[in-house]
Please model this.
Amino acid sequence: MTPRALKIALIASIGLNLFALAVGLVIWVGAQRAESQAETERRGGRQSPAMALIEQLEPAQQGPVRQALRASALAAKPDFEAARAARREAIARAGDPSFDQAGVQALLEESRLAEMRGRARLETGAVQVLSGLDQADREALSPLLARHRNGKKAAETSSPPPAEPAPDQPAR
Model:
């Protein structure tokens, strides 16, 4: 073989090897993505902030804590469903041609009360779970008691409500 043919064969071999390496890399990345997606689907698609907090606990404690919180969430579910249903009904009635202010107000009040009952059940369940943990674990799970999803950050960054005008001053 001539030196020129050897150079061409060497370049072709290197090119083919690089192509094979790129194909192997694409297959490996695709398999990693598929595995990650399968894991996400096994977990139900998304992870709640409460469940992310639970993962900070010892593996032996995660199961019982998760079960207790899930049980309190299931107990509160009818209250939250009733709150959503009352709010949907209030929205529907607010759009009716014959607007019934008292009826809409009553439905909104019913919705707020049902949501407060649900929150009380969730908070009671969370406090019961916290009472069975040591101080470090209680500290790790304490953001469960925050009303906002992002826990302490919402409490720290929320501004106080605007002050109501004094009776002798006109509202702006």
Summary: The two ends are 94 Å apart (CA to CA).
